[in-house]
Structures are given as structure tokens and as C-alpha cells.
Amino acid sequence: MKSAVTLIAATTVHQAVRRKLVLMAAVACGGFLLLYGLAFAAAMANANNVINAASRLIQREAASSFMLLGLYAADLLTATIAILAASDTISGEIASGAMQTLASKPVARWQIFLGKWVGFVLLLTALLAVLQGGVMLIAWGFTGYSAPNVASGLGLLWLEMVVLVTITLLWGTRLSTLANGVLSLGLFGLAFLGGWIEQLGAVTQHVRVVQIGIVASLIMPSEARWRRAAFDMRSPLSAAVNFGPFTWASVPSGLMVVYAAAYAALALMLGLRSFATRDL
Amino acid sequence: MTSELAVETHTLRKLYGRKLAVSDCTLAVRRGEAFGLLGPNGAGKSTCVKMLLGLVRPTAGTGQLLGEPLGAVAARRRVGFLPEHFHFQDWLSGTELLHLHGRLLGMEAGRLRQRVPELLERVELGRQGRKPIREYSKGMQQRVGLAQALLQEPDIVFLDEPTSGLDPLGRMLVRDLIAEQRQRGATVFLNSHLLGEVEVSCDRVAFVKAGRVLETRDLRAPEAVTVVNVRARSVPRDGWGRLGIQGRRQDDASASDPAKGGDPPEAWRFELPRPELLPELLRLLVDAGAEVFEYTPRRDSLEETFLRVVGHEGDGQ
Ligand SMILES: Nc1ncnc2c1ncn2[C@@H]1O[C@H](COP(=O)(O)OP(=O)(O)OP(=O)(O)O)[C@@H](O)[C@H]1O
Ligand SMILES: [Mg+2]
């Protein structure tokens, strides 16, 4: 019965299209990329007549920072859209009763949950590709600059988004749409704040502060993905001197990546279980 | 075991947290019969059905649906269900919705292309099938819901208050649809508050009160004749009690006016525990000197049974 999962995933995507979720996300992305492109063009406007090597180096750094800034903002946008879109899907259908007609069909509960999960991951992968890919393309188009480790960087951002979607779907099996949205956004905010706390602690060399930040990242390992991605994709110069607006004083280790993947897998399993055992 | 019964449950129980929704649901529904579940609001009818369909997990008790344990996915392939408060993927059109649900049931595309328009026609939606469901009226949604419950010609159809929101024509449609299901040999499980509807459609009914199935009644059995209406003069005031018969005068005793010459016959209503007592009651009345003008045995109406079983002893909860 693998086809039931595929069918529900396809329905989830279909629903997002019909309910104009995709259209609105496209409008948001279009606006974002347009603004970003205009700003990028303005920033690079008088860079063309710079010839000497030193200024070219500076220009490269500017392009790199500007690109990371774009990726950072795009990351916030993706995360918010992921949470908003996923928070209604299960809880909303349970509340409206639509789930009763689905779950009384010969499909197992886990198939419904997994189908929804696959559908949302597909949708948000597309969103991520458009937004982050768009930012990189703009940077490359204006300056010819391309960041190192693009694939692994994007992979990390993708993992961040998967963690968020999975957690949001998990809460959706037990909470109302609104409560779920508030909780998931709250957790995302916690991880966000935790990331900055960890940075601050590292810069000021307060071990206790760093630890608090790490605990936040363990509770919700979303923001940590971004920092690792930014670390991997920073320019060679900022890597050498270890300084820049998006050069992190404290970079999540590779272990943290494994932790986040395990975290998402566990959340998925808990979600399957929680949905399978609840009354509809 | 799979042969005779479509539904079989033993002391199913459901607690929502600390709230007892169903305390004892013990049912046996034969294959091919139309079975009604009756009871006041909040008695636990919908919860019973949801436990049968695996939507709600029983706290205790066991049961089988079409020979499979409750909650088994396989049995649901042959089940149709119209929930009480339902809501569909309303961004789909009626046609798309039926296709989606048909595919979830494992039906083939070719079969669906033929079955869906046929069903839409049958529930009198016809061309409305192309409209999105969000633009449907309540009754139109109910009709799509019915079509959805009958898609794969299921072996058993659960209808939880199928006529709510329907106009009189729609109610007749439901009645006809139920009759059609029975003709093709399917089992029908009906929850309804409309006793007239249940009386027409069902073979047997069970009464539920405060989460307990109290009594099952066969509506087709002739021995359900237990009430007799009598019009007679000089009815004795007692004597039937020893037979286990209850008698009550229906009209106002003070209305009889001897001055008008000749009492009008009194109206009495007797309830007999067994129909075999009918001749004995008549003999008893005549021997006691009653002049009997009318002696009409009739079935205890479903409404009366409902009131007797469900109405009296305490309130609904
Ligand atoms: N999800 C739930 N959580 C808590 N209590 C519930 C829940 N669903 C039902 N109940 C309670 O269980 C009892 C039985 O409800 P149920 O819906 O089965 O009754 P019903 O017989 O179908 O009533 P009606 O005729 O009004 O449809 C009610 O007291 C109701 O308040
Ligand atoms: Mg009900």
C-alpha cells in the first residue's frame, strides 16, 4: 500500500495549489527576490571601475556577505512559511471532521501522516530551491561570485526545514492549529535566540552563555543548521581571517548535524505514533 | 465466525479522559439486515460507530467488523461511512472528491470513470458534480457524502444521521438508497433520531441510553403486538394485574355523564407482556360484564417503545 502514501502526498500538494498557498508563496518569493536583486544591483553599481587587486578582494567579500545576508533572510522566510503551512494540515482536518472520511478508508494512519509529511517536504523543498537558489543566482549574476560548498550548505538548510515541518506536523496531531502555530514558531524563536546567545558567549568567551545557547539548539536544532551552512559557504578570505558579519565564532559541529537528522527522524516516528493512536 | 454477523461487539467501552462516553456497547448485526441505533442525544451512538470503524480506540471490550478485529485496515475496504459531522476536502469538486475517495478505496480508474457520474446522478447532483464543494449547500454536501459512502458498493454502510439537512425529497432518496443497499445484500447500520425513518428502513433496532445498549427489538417480528386499544362500557377496575397486564383509562373519567342516558364507551389502553394473552384479556373483560365495542390489538409503536426504554428511568445521561 505504498500508493496510499503517494496519493495523500499528491493530494497535499494539490491542496496547496488549490488553496492558493503555492500562489501566495510564489508572490512572497517574487517580491523577496526582486527586492534583493535591486539592492544587490545598487550595492554593486560602482564596483565595475575598480581595477586593482585589493579592491577586487574587497568586492568579493562584499558579494559574499551580501549573499549570506540574502540566504539568511530567505531562511527566515522559508522557516516561517513552513510552519504556517504545516500547522493547519492535520489539526485543521481533525477539527473539521475531514479526517474521519479519510481515516475510515482502508489506509493506515501512518500512511496518512507520512503522505502529508512527504507532500510538505516536497513543497518546501521547491520553496527552498527557488528562494535560496534565487539568492545565489542573483549574487552570481551580478558579480560572478559563487560560494564554496553550495551543495552541503543547501543540504543543511534543507535539514533545518525538515526539522521544522516534522515538528509542526507532530504537534498538529495533538494541538489545535493556532496552538500548534504558536508553539512551533515559539520553538523556532527559541532556537534563533539560542543561536545568537551561543555567538555572544563565544565572542565574549563566556562558557556558561555558550552552554545555554547549545541547550537551546538541542531543544530545537533548526537555527544551528543555518549557522553551519553559513560557515561552510563563507568566502575563503573570511575563512582565513575568521571574521565577517556571518562568520560565526561558534560553529555547530558535525555531530550537531547528525543530531538534527536523528531529531527529525524521531519527531517523524513520534508523529506517526501519536497520530495512529489518537481518537478522531 | 465470519459467516453470519457483519458486526459483533462485546462490552465495548470508551472513556474520553474521565468522561464516560460508552459504558457497554454489545451488539450483533447480521449480514444483510438494516440495523438502527436509537437513543437520546449524547447516548453514545456516534462513539459506538467510530469505535467500529477504528476512528476511536475502545478503552475496553472487543469486537469484529466483517470478520476482522476492530481497527483492521482490511475490513475498511468493504465499508462505507457517512459521518455525523462531516466535512470534505472542500477545495475539490464533487467529481474530484469521489475520485480521490475511490482511489483511497483501491478502486481502479476505469471503474471510477463509470461509477462516479452514475452515483452523482443517483444522488441527484448530476451536473453539480463539477462545482467545488465549498459552494455546495448543506443538503448537496450531504448528498455527496452519501455518494462517497456507496462508492465501492460496500458490504456494510454506516450512516450517522444521514437525513440531517435534507429536504423531504432528500429524505425519500435516503430511504430508497437504504432499500437499494439491502436489495443487493449489503448490511446497513443507521443512526437516526427520526423514528419514522427507522421504522420504515430497519429490520432491527437497538436502544442506547447513557452509553449502554439496553434492548434490541425486531421490527419485523409479528409478536411485537403488545398493545390493545379497547372501547367498552362497564370496564372492571382491575383483575388483569395477575396476568401481568397493565391497563389505563385514556379518556377523562368525569366526562361520562349518566344524565345523558347511557354512558359513552370508555377508552382504555392495555399493555400485554405477551401477545398470547390477547384472548384471555378479552374473556376477562366480557366475564366481568363489560360491553366491548372495540378491541384493537396493535404493535407498540417505535415511539412508544423509545419512550418506555429510553424516556422514563432518569434522564438521558
Ligand atoms: N471527543 C470527545 N471528547 C470528550 N467527550 C466526548 C467526545 N465525543 C463525544 N463525547 C461525549 O460522549 C458522549 C457520547 O457522544 P456521542 O457523540 O457518541 O453521542 P450520540 O449518541 O451520537 O449523540 P447525538 O444523538 O447527539 O449525535 C457525550 O456525552 C459526549 O459529550
Ligand atoms: Mg451522534
In words, what does this structure look like?
Chain A has helices spanning 2-18, 21-43, 53-87, 89-96, 98-103, 109-143, 150-172, 177-204, 207-219, 223-233, 236-241, 254-277. The mean pLDDT of chain A is 83. Chain A has one domain. By secondary structure, chain A is mainly α. The longest helix of chain A has 35 residues, at 53-87. Chain B starts with a strand and ends in a 6-residue tail after the last helix. In chain B, helix 4 (109-122) packs across helix 5. Chain B has 9 helices and 14 strands. In chain B, strand 4 and strand 5 (68-69) form a beta hairpin. With 317 residues, chain B is α/β, with parallel strands linked by helices. Chain B has 2 domains: 5-218, Rossmann fold, CATH 3.40.50.300; 226-298. At the A-B interface, helix 1 and helix 5 of A face helix 2 and helix 3 of B.
Properties at a glance:
heterodimer; A: 12 helices; 82% helix; globular; B: 317 residues; alpha/beta; Rossmann fold; 2 domains; six-stranded mixed sheet; four-stranded antiparallel sheet; 9 helices; 14 strands; binds adenosine-5'-triphosphate; binds magnesium ion
